[in-house]
Every structure is written in C-alpha cells, then in structure tokens.
Design brief:
The protein is of the alpha/beta class. It contains 13 helices and 7 strands. The chain has a 7-stranded parallel sheet, with helices on both faces. It starts with a helix and ends with a helix. Belongs to the SIMIBI class G3E GTPase family. ArgK/MeaB subfamily.
C-alpha cells in the first residue's frame, strides 16, 4: 500500500510521517492531502481556547479518556508555544497526556506556532484533514493561550469551548469584544477556587448582553463548572458538546452547512495565501530579486512595502 492507502487504513506510522512532512512544508505532502480530502467530513472537531494556565490540556486529556470509554477514536492536536532557541514545540501538552501514549485509539500531535498568530499553526487545518481521513471520530484541537488573537479556532472547529478560571474577572471584561464571541460553550475550570460564583455571574452577564457568536442563532451558550484534575464536570461538558452538535445537525436553519462552509473557506484562503506567497517568492528569486535587499530598501525608506508588493504582482501579471 502507498502512504495514502496506509493512512486511510488507520496506520499510525504513516499518519505520523505525513504530519511531519506537513509541518516541514514538504511539497510531497500537498499531493497526499489532495487524495485524502475526499475521504474527510466524518470527524467532529472540537476546539479549546483560553488563556495560559486555565487547564485546557487537562480538560482535553479527560475528554479523550471519556470518549475512549464510549468506544470512539480520538485525535488530539495540541498547539504548543515555539521554543525561542530551536523553533520547535516545547511539547508541554504531550507531557501532560502521557497516559494515552499506549492507546492505539488516541493519536496525539504537538505543533509549534512558529510565530503564527491566531492561536493556530498554519498546518493545523491540513493535519485535521489527515486525522479525519485516518478515521478518527473526534478531533480535539487545543490552541496556545495568546488571548484575543485566538479566534482562528472558531473557524476550524464545529464546537468551540472557551475555558477560563476564577479570578480572571478583569481579563474577561478586557476580552469581551473579541474572544468571548467565539465560544459555543464556556467552561469555568478550577471551580473549587474562591471567586467562581463571581466569574460565572460575569460570564452570564456578558452572554445576556449579546456577546455571543452571531452564527449560533437559537443557541444559548451554557456555562459549565469543572475541576479537570478531579474529573468533576467532565460528563456535563461532554453533554453540552453533544447538545451543540445536535443543535447544528438536527435543526433546519442551515447552521451545520454554514459551519462546514466557513471551515472550507478558511482552509481555502489559508492554502491560497500560502501557495501564492511561495510562488511569488520563487519567481522573484528566479528573476534574481533578493528578498533581503528589498527589506533593506524598505528599512532605509528607499521604497515602501506597498510599492514593492504592487511591482511584484504587476510583474507577474504581464
């Protein structure tokens, strides 16, 4: 069997090899993705976002355990901060999920952001495609905690879970105009801490003020209290996720089609951006243009970024 056939058969090593090639941006990975894409669309994708230290990894770990008890297979994509020294992922999330390493029904991959904003690495959507084609029933995507820029997760997931903890009231107020609007479900983790009632009250007030996803008309975002380390609240969170899945798929408002279309649009635009930039740089180098020299000219104010880009585009359109 070739690589694509092995992945479709659920081969872990073949999947790991392609994910590595995707992360390394090897051209061969694109051909494999083309063949895998028609086999996608079966997995349910759940995104987790929130500030650092709120317990996203522990929640993902607990959910994976519960889904496995239900006989479902799970893929986990954990976006780690990039090491400033090596450019690779620090792999903190993978360390926290060690108990799943011997379970063939769970596939875990840590990704480095490599300076990519939005909370997701640009390889994330392609890797979701691979895990979906591999046959995973549920894909859990955990984003690096960088605050309001983490809105990309809402475009790649079917259900987005926003995680916070008690004592972050000021932060909730600060982010209310941005990241609050991407959550389908809100989780107050470490709910045994002092101030949990106040945090829940603030979240309810913001939801009542209308700070919720505009594409979720008819859905009332629930607030779930959890203590992830103890497993408390995990069944309630799973129930909320399942209710949101049914809300999307069983009503006649076209929400499911809209969510799927939004994810396809994001993937298309990301791929277009990446391929267009790569092709322009390749053609620029073929003409003897030097990127560093252009940067020097822009820095010295001999030209500006807008003129440089316009010249490059016009050159290619002739």
């Amino acid at each position: 069997m070739n690589l694509v056939e092995q992945i479709l058969a659920g081969d872990v090593r073949a999947t790991a090899r392609l994910l590595r090639d995707i992360d390394d941006q090897l051209p061969s990975a694109r051909e494999a993705l083309k063949q895998l894409y028609p086999h996608t669309g079966k997995a349910y994708i759940i995104g987790f976002t929130g500030s650092p230290g709120v317990g996203k990894s522990t929640l993902v770990d607990q959910l994976a355990l519960e889904y496995r008890k239900q006989g479902l297979t799970v893929g986990i994509l954990a976006i780690d901060p990039t090491s400033p020294f090596t450019g690779g992922a620090i792999l903190g999330d993978r360390i926290r999920m060690q108990r799943h390493f011997t379970d063939s029904g769970v596939f875990i991959r840590s990704l480095a952001t490599r300076g990519h904003f939005g909370g997701l690495t640009k390889s994330t959507n392609d890797m979701i495609t691979v895990l979906d084609a591999m046959g995973k029933d549920v894909i859990l995507v955990e984003t690096v905690g960088v605050g309001q820029d983490e809105v990309d997760v809402a475009n790649c997931a079917h259900t987005t879970v926003l995680v916070t903890i008690p004592g972050m009231g000021d932060e909730i107020q600060a982010i209310k105009a941005g990241i609050m609007e991407i959550g389908n479900i809100f989780v107050v983790n470490k709910a045994d801490r002092e101030g949990s009632r106040k945090t829940i009250r603030e979240l309810k007030n913001l939801i009542e003020l209308g700070l919720r996803r505009r594409d979720d008309e008819g859905w009332e975002p629930p607030i779930i209290e959890t203590e992830a380390l103890k497993g408390r609240g995990i069944p309630e969170l799973m129930d909320a996720i399942e209710k949101h899945r049914r809300f999307l798929t069983e009503n006649d408002r076209g929400q499911w089609d809209a969510v799927v279309a939004k994810r396809a649009k994001m993937q298309l635009l990301d791929t277009l951006r990446e391929e267009a930039l790569r092709e322009l740089l390749r053609r620029m180098e073929a003409r003897g243009e030097n990127l560093d020299e252009l940067v020097r000219k822009v820095t010295a104010k001999e030209t500006d970024p807008y003129t440089v880009v316009q010249d490059l585009l016009q050159c290619e359109l002739r």
